Amino acid sequence: MSHFPGSRNAAIATVAAVALLASACSQGSATRAPSGADGKATVRYFTFSAAPDHLKDLDTIEKAFEKENPKVDVVVETAPFEEYFTKLQTSIAGGTAPDAFELNYENFVTYASAGSLLDLGTVAGDGDTSVYAQESLNAFQQDGKQYALPASFSTVVLFYNKDLFKKAGVAEPTADWTWADEQAAAAELTDRKKGVYGDFQPVQFFEFYKTLKQAGGEFLSADGKKATFNSPEGVKAAKWLVGKVGKSMPTEAEIGGAADYDTNLFKSGKLAMWHNGIWQFAGLKDVPFEWDVVVEPGDANKASAVFHNAVAISSGTKAGKDAYAWARFLSSSNVAATTRIQSSWELPPVADQQVLSGYLKDPKPANRQAVFDSLKSIALPPVIKRQQEMQDAVTKQLTEAAAGRTSVEDALKAAAADVDALLG
Amino acid sequence: MTLTAAPPEERVTHQRARPRKGWRYAGTVAVFLLPSLVPLTLYTIIPMLGSLWTSLHEWDLITEMRWVGLGNYIELIGDPGTRAAFLHTLSFIAGYLPLVYAGGLGLALLLNRAPRSTGSGRSLLRGIYFLPVITSWVVVALMWKWLLNPASGIVNWALGLFGISGPGWWTDPAWAMPSVILASAWKDLGFVMIILLAGLQAIPREYQEAAMVDGATAWRRFRHITLPLLSPSTFFVVVISLINGFQVFDQVKIMTNGGPGGATQVVVSQIYDLTFRYGRAGAASALSWLLFAVVLIVTIIQIRGQKRWVTYG
Fold first, then answer.
1. How far apart are the first and last CA of chain B?
2. B 42-81: CB under 8 A from A
3. Are B202 and A90 within 8 A, CB to CB?
4. Domains in chain A, ordered, with CATH?
5. Global model pTM greater than 0.95
6. Is it true that domain B55-309 has CATH number 1.10.3720.10?
7. Would you tell me which residues 201-220 of chain B have a C-beta closer than 8 angstroms to some C-beta of chain A?
8. Which tens digits make up the pLDDT trace of B152-184?
9. ipTM field
10. Are strands A291-294 and B66-67 parallel, antiparallel or unpaired?
């Protein structure tokens, strides 16, 4: 029997514990891109929208750019959307910001006001901007200065599984559908015993601000200083979303935190209607059933969500001119626009309708016209300085209501109070 | 954190009359300490001072810092979110600490009783119980997330066999924290077991035998010999587990991400969200220092209080 005194054992254990902690805390150091081999300038580009479905397409655009600009080497770094802004923020704080990076419209204001973006006027020279759709270009201006170039846009539509509609003998959705039509069809299409659900629409901020607009409400007051969504229209919109949970779509507990649950459900042919973005087109190419899209049903109004992504240049970059050349190529060159259209990688925000019409040639989905129709009445997300906190607060309260832990009315009241505090 | 078990009183008196060794001696000591002092200064002390400085500013990581003095601290102390985070952390500790200690003690007692002849079998069991301790939290948390999946998890399936309809575990605000506690206690069981087993093996067998001759029951021997002589190991385990408990994060981030409805938002996940979701690195640094203060106070109380119940054999 060993007779070590207890304190010695403790000391040994302490050493072991400290060693464990030390190994747990050590992290790999951030790697920096190799700079300028054989006199080439390096442009580091950070993006969220390319992976995983469109890396090849980005590669095509990059190769074409490097052929035209043999002195520039573009190094692409990607991150999934959920992690993208954390990484971007830390790299800016740590002084290792990429030279050029993708920004969405919701986050543009934050970064532009923070002074993180290069005023493109300083590097553009006499760059002609008439190739861009003007409203897209204007969305990325602040105080009359262009801080980013619009690179792509996408809209949210209603996807539907034609086979499931046929089997259930339900008429397919049309552009004239209202919420009531959608609800009635969803009820008929849902067959929980077979695991078939009628209608999936995520219960979160982005769906809420849009359905609010569909119901005829406004999210913020005209001066942007007060939350106005705690209204009869707001209650109606929230009830529309929350009411689907546990009826035509599974509850949170049934989903059990599975990643990409709705995507997989639709792909497996067990979801009849699905509210999602046109960025899903490429991923649905090979599903073994017929599907199509329509403009989302409305209530008092039609309103479709539009997401805008742009390329910005870091204010701290040393390769401003080369980064601008890349941003411009990526957002407006013929190669970029046609690559995007051929691969259904969202839409290029170009002025030339001829280029855009190529989008309609792809036979799947048949009703591609719906994508352009959805642009006729759009709902842009409300943007405030403390954006993420607002989105989280609204999503959290709606989730509580969806789980039945609070009433829709109380949830909206609490969310409005939170948003007012953030606007403070 | 370094923890040194206080030496017994009489040993202290022997060491008191140490002669002064002068600068040469100090230099030698410094050289030997250097390998640990340099990384400690670079990676712990300097960042800590940096976060103290940051905590006095408003900083979104992308703009220049703006001085706000104690503003962050004042805001945090009045913020219901901070209070909730501390309450959730305390409720985690309240469930985790007794569970991990009782479980670890039970395992240690069982392994300690195993006859010598089962030597290699015992080592094997010890290794198996220790395995979760050295396994990455990502793996463990994902595994428990699957086990406790309300729809397809094996735990609810097994409960179903007995006609029990299992709870929503980490999707239900009432059960989310117990889920995290369960996973945490399971993972750290081996650590507690190893320390306590070492403590048990250091208890001289003669004491037990003498008590047996006097006719003491197994329970009385456990209560009056084993437990008091195990108290130094218990003290170490409690101090370490409490500090770990206050810093709970990985399992929360992966299993519940603070949800559902904020039911498992603990202090460190609040710090994470403040920095990386909401761009408020200043407030997050201030919250880190509040947490540090709480841990420091609790640890001081424990070290002061040990005189009352810790027996050094």
1. 25
2. 43, 60-63
3. no
4. 39-153+308-361 (3.40.190.10), 155-306+370-423 (3.40.190.10)
5. no
6. yes
7. 201-202, 204-205
8. 889 999 999 998 888 888 888 899 999 999 999
9. 0.74
10. unpaired
